[in-house]
Amino acid sequence: MESTHSSKSVPLRLIALDIGGTKTHAVRYLGNQIVAEVRTGTANVQNVSIDEAQQALRDAFAGLGEQPVDLVIAGAGGIDTDADNLALRNLIEPFVPKVEVQVVHDTRLILAAGQTHVGVAVILGTGSAIWGLNSSGKTARYGGWGYLLGDEAAGYWFGREAVRHALDEFNRGRRESALTSLLLEHTECANPEELIALFHKQSSREYWARCAPVIFEAIASGDAAAEEILQRAISFVVSKVGVVAGQLGISGPVVLGGGVIEHQHIYQERLRAALAADGFEDLRFLVRSPVHGAAFLAGLADDL
Questions:
Q1: How far apart are CA 62 and CA 234, in angstroms?
Q2: Which is the most buried residue in 5, 26, 40, 253, by most CB within 10 A?
Q3: How buried is 209 (Cβ within 10 angstroms: 0-12 exposed, 13-18 middle, 19+ buried)?
């Protein structure tokens, strides 16, 4: 999806938006130079009201300044139908009148941020999704269904699984594990029973996604339950990457991004080994934000 706006004499004036489950990352480019960058609340209407989404976008565009724009590329979760695409464009267009707005699924940004037009993108942030594209233009996906239906192996899922483990352990009358102790400390609960009310009261995806690091802290201390949860996550990712790659007839590259996988080195190391053992050897863990995939899609040089 290279832009027709690019010109050797006039640098492309691009705005890139990465609209995640909990935040919006916005960047303004002048050619291949980043001239403004801001993070605001999420503008994803699957997670917040239309008013909240509009306010997040208002804050984002205000933070980027009022210079002219040639093109906006926005990636977001939940862009599954033409109607989803149109709804997000309708939210964005009032902030950039008469400017072309291109909307893609956020996994498309992940793939592009890995500097490739074909392959399998894996997003493991607050939620999860796997999306692929082959050289014939065929696409395939698995997941991205939202936390009520899936989002396995991602932040909210890890937080919820930690809570489920603590409650199961408590109901069985077992000795408190390292994972349970770390979770109680993180949530400031006196005992696992208090987690029930907290979970239903403090039910935001962001809150429980922020509990994900306790899984990895517990693994570092040798906790078996945390290890089992991580292994389930890895098995899920490897299996579903195989599903997507198999539909497309490709073996990579596999580009992985999102807050959980970017910040948890244990997760990276285990996934790298498991995917390689399944035949996926060209793995690219993002070292820069997925929002920069928009610059690749727009045809800008890779020296950002």
A1: 40
A2: 26
A3: buried
Provide the H-helix boundaries in 20-105: 50-64, 82-92
Cα dihedral 4→36→110→97 (10° resolution): -50
Nearest to 193 by CA among 175, 216, 159, 168: 168
Q: Are 267 and 238 in contact (CB under 8 A)?
A: no
Bridge partners (DSSP) listed for residue 130: 122, 142
Taking the C-alpha atoms of residue 166 and residue 193, their distance in angstroms, rounded to an integer, is 9
250-285 tens-digit pLDDT: 999 999 998 899 899 999 999 999 999 999 999 999
Residues 162/183, Cβ–Cβ less than 8 Å: yes
Contact 132, 139 (CB under 8 A): yes
Q: Which long-range contacts (CB under 8 A, 24 or more apart) does 243-247 make?
A: 243/130, 243/140, 243/142, 244/120, 244/130, 244/131, 244/132, 244/140, 244/141, 244/142, 245/120, 245/132, 245/280, 247/132, 247/138, 247/140
Whether residue 255 contacts residue 122, with contact meaning beta carbons closer than 8 Å, is answered with yes
The pTM for the full model equals 0.81
Coil, strand or helix at 104: strand
Q: What is the pLDDT of residue 296?
A: 92
- At residue 206, the pLDDT reads 86
pLDDT tens per residue across span 45-87: 877 899 999 999 999 999 999 899 999 999 998 787 889 899 9
Cβ neighbour number for residue 168 with a 10 Å cutoff: 13
Order the strands of the 139-143 sheet from edge to edge. Answer: 139-143, 128-133, 119-124, 254-257, 283-285
Q: What pLDDT sits at residue 146?
A: 85
pLDDT at 177: 96
Q: Are 24 and 300 in contact (CB under 8 A)?
A: no
The rounded distance, in Å, linking the Cα atoms of 184 and 211 is 10
Q: What percent of the chain has a predicted confidence (pLDDT) above 90? A: 76
